[in-house]
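agent> fetching stored inputs for the FE2/S2 (inorganic) cluster docking request
agent> found them:
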Amino acid sequence: MSEQPLFKLTIDNISIEVPAGTTILNAARKIGGEVAPPAMCYYSKLEGSGGKCRTCLVEVSKGSEKDPRPMPKLVASCRTTVMDGMEVKNITSNKVMDARNGVVEFLLINHPLDCPICDQAGECHLQDLSYEHGKAGTRYEFQRRTFKKHDLGDKIQLHMTRCILCYRCVFTADQLTNKREHGILDRGDHAEIATFIEKNLDNDFIGNVIDVCPVGALTDKTFRFKNRVWFLKPMDAHRDCPTCSGKVTLWNRGDEVFRVTARKDEWGEVEEWICNTCRFDTKKTSDWTIEGPRLIDRHSVISQGHYAGSVGTNKPTETFEAVHGGRKPKLLMDIHTVSDVNRPDITLSMLERPAHTTDFKPNQD
Ligand code: SF4
Ligand code: FES
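agent> prediction call returned; pasting tokens
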């Protein structure tokens, strides 16, 4: 195969050379950091993905060396390929920031604000986007969409109200499994993810739809409501699996494995697909060979739960008196006697490991 010529372009004034045929989004990912536009529907491992959500819009202020005219409209960077001499603006463009705010407002029109009870909270791309570009209020006066409840088999829960119709799960089912039984039905604001005549999605790799979903529309029923991701410690682990590579991330609290996911790269994309047995049915630490802690972006709320990490987890060394200018406390309360949650015989701050369920009193409800 002949080598692709290299095209030189600038994105947010940073120069980069990439092979012809590369999209602006992938060129920006090579630079990395904030220069890379957010992508809610594009997924590099899924053929045909992209072009649906418009979160990746950028401004092309110079088309190419040969034709320097700017592109008249903002373009979807996941679907637009680079040209030699192109100049692209992402975070340096007010137009792009305005448009992204608008796109986020649209994505949130029908999305419920149920982050406090959503399992995706803490690792939801829409949550991150709305922190950066969202508004505190809504201009939408109509009722949000409601749907009849669908279960996608016994291990996957679909919350259609949270779906942003990015098509990633449909492409995953199409391209990874040999019998797809779900897709998008209807058009416009009636469009919804549905199983074909309510069939179960039972094949070995279908659990991967949970990992590709950028929001909390598809969640793991074996993990639902059991814990918050930022209380868990992600560990890379592997096992000898006859179906997949067996390379996963375990989400532990102490010795308990709360969930198993595929390993994700810095763009939140799955590195290697994993099978349902690894994901749903192999939840004992003894099933796995632990490789070590998974590196998580230090800005992620999940890294707050890293005990070996440096973010917000250093135990304070000062005594109470040192902090209060030599004054002794007037009243000291023992957490064990005032809390309904802690077990009196365990001092959580003295544990040399993360606390887990057995360190707390059993649920009183
Ligand atoms: S369920 Fe999730 S992955 Fe599937 S289309 Fe909706 S948002 Fe995308
Ligand atoms: S990521 Fe480009 S349109 Fe969705």
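agent> quick read of the result: Residues 94-109 form the longest helix (16 residues).
agent> awaiting further instructions
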